[in-house]
Automatic annotation (TrEMBL):
PROSITE patterns: PROKAR_LIPOPROTEIN. InterPro entries: Spore_lipoprot_YhcN/YlaJ (IPR014247), Spore_lipoprot_YhcN/YlaJ-like (IPR019076). It comes from Pelotomaculum thermopropionicum (strain DSM 13744 / JCM 10971 / SI). This is Hypothetical membrane protein. GO terms for biological process: sporulation resulting in formation of a cellular spore. The keyword Signal applies. Residues 36-50 have a biased composition (Low complexity). Keywords: Signal. Residues 30-59 are annotated as: Disordered. Residues 1-21 form the signal peptide. NCBIfam families: spore_YhcN_YlaJ (TIGR02898). It holds the Pfam family Spore_YhcN_YlaJ. It comes from the Bacteria.
């Protein structure tokens, strides 16, 4: 009797082990054979052209982005730092705006930044006064000739505090 129970237990464990080892993968939905013609075309991929690394060119791009962001209704001034393919934008907004209006401005600024520089892969926009001040200090340091890499820790801290508004 004990041998029969042991054999049954052993077979059950073996069966479960084989079932798990065989891989219980989720079924995939089959791809359509002929996609409908009415589907919208895929969005254009970001430009494959590399971002410039010369300080003068990066400064020119940051100025263009700042000007584009400043044109958004509700923005007094924008401070921009470009690090690689990421733009950090600090927005000084007009006084007395509601939270919903602030979020709209951030979205619009993000869109304008992406239009002004399509090679960017991430755009961080903040209207928090502390972050705007920190970005101003970084921008002043870069304008004074320091490399952006000297501010990597500061930019990483800023990125932790805000989420990207565009990827």
């Amino acid at each position: 009797m004990k041998a029969t129970k042991r054999l049954s237990f052993f077979l059950a464990v073996l069966f479960v082990g084989v079932a798990l080892a065989a891989g219980c993968t989720a079924l995939r939905k089959p791809a359509p054979q002929n996609p409908p013609e009415s589907q919208a075309p895929a969005p254009a991929a970001p430009s494959q052209e590399a971002m410039p690394t010369s300080p003068e060119e990066v400064s020119r791009i940051a100025s263009n982005i700042s000007a584009a962001a400043s044109r958004v209704a509700g923005v007094n001034r924008a401070t921009v730092v470009v690090a690689g393919t990421t733009a950090y934008v600090g927005v000084d907004q007009k006084a007395g705006l509601e939270k919903g209006e602030t979020e709209r401005i951030k979205r619009e600024v993000s869109g304008e930044v992406k239009k002004a520089e399509p090679r960017l892969t991430a755009v961080y926009v903040s209207s928090d006064p502390d972050i705007v001040t920190r970005l101003r200090r970084v921008a002043e340091g870069v304008a004074a000739g320091q490399p952006v890499s000297a501010f990597d820790n500061e930019l990483a801290e800023i990125a932790k505090r805000i989420s990207p508004t565009s990827r």
